Predict the 3D structure of the following.
Amino acid sequence: MSAIQGVLLDLSGVLYVGEQEVPGAVEAVERLRASGLPLRYLTNTTRSTRARVQQKLADLGFPIEADEIFTAPRAVRAHLRSQGLRPLLLIHPDLEPEFSDLPRERPDAVVLGDAGEAFDYAALNGAFRVLMEGAPLIAMGDNRYFREAEGLSLDVGPFVRALEYAAGCEARVLGKPAAGFFESAVSELGCAPEACVMIGDDARSDVEGALAAGLQGILVRTGKYRPGDEDGIRLPGASIEDDIGAAVDRVLG
Amino acid sequence: MSAIQGVLLDLSGVLYVGEQEVPGAVEAVERLRASGLPLRYLTNTTRSTRARVQQKLADLGFPIEADEIFTAPRAVRAHLRSQGLRPLLLIHPDLEPEFSDLPRERPDAVVLGDAGEAFDYAALNGAFRVLMEGAPLIAMGDNRYFREAEGLSLDVGPFVRALEYAAGCEARVLGKPAAGFFESAVSELGCAPEACVMIGDDARSDVEGALAAGLQGILVRTGKYRPGDEDGIRLPGASIEDDIGAAVDRVLG
């Protein structure tokens, strides 16, 4: 692994699973911090404000600053404000505070996060009708699924595909694996993409997405990882490690 | 329009919209019947049993026999029985009687119809988990949307795309526009595909689907039709008429 000058880390499935630390993850993050490498934590976990993400990490023992956390909702919020858009939000209720100051009447954009139980037929139909008027579809990611305590659950991606197909449109994805999302995070680190590495448990969204944006990538065998996932990475250069501890060993050489 | 020996007709949007006959449709169907051409009515409207479809048509004044009605649910039911599959059904509640005698415990197949309000997150997630165990996905169609009295609404297709993307699988579509569905209907008519014509209001599902299966096709400007829809038909040979009456004029030449 050559000349790493910055590290991007996924959260869920890499540092923790559900409410449990991945064994050795706190110690691994502490070693990374001690190395002095700039870090950002990239998450499409669109059920929490940045403040809540930080609180959860603190409760689990991770010493992480709020401004080290780079979330898809923050990227979406910035896009809506810069374009002057009034969103119809199909997002998790816990995320509403992140958008509370944006205009919502007569929506002219549709925003999808992993809304969970809020993905019901009436809500999806309402979003579809706004899209059919020509509004853009903006998504906080297009992950297929995530792992919860009781099993795999549908993430935002399937609902993005559903509305794209229904309305005959293409979503702007402002989360992993969109290249623009990785590029924004890298620019905060202040180094070249090829000198950054992304560590994640999702072969496509974390690792292939990072490789496609010109970064290095390490897939860890925790969280949503299933044997054989690495075979689905079509770009060359991915590394694979058992967990975040082994990944940090590799990064620090 | 050359040498027509059999006619397939879509129902919703061609014969009626909501609870209203398309003006002239009863008279057009009566002329077709009087011609002696064999007819089948093809519908992906997966919210009704065949018996209920017939009753609705009778109430609107259409003289149609039950065995002239060729529905996607009947095709799905035949497939499940022939394969000995135990379905998890994500279908409209009104359609449940069509499947009441099939085994349902420990499902090893997922069946999607246009479930409407029954498409909620918990139900979709349950179907996703069965698919991740390797069960096949069987769909009664993949239409994008349909027109209701209050506007356009999501049909089954977007939910097919959602589950295909989530589970990394490909659905077997036993409804329009699947070629196998048209071929089954044509075989009941007892004539060659190229001597059959399909009349419908959905450019892709009715007309392009029929053309792809080797039939002739007529798009009518009623129901879900929107100006310009015909431009989306990529195969040559489609005709376009104002409504079912004009389409029957063309067929009977």
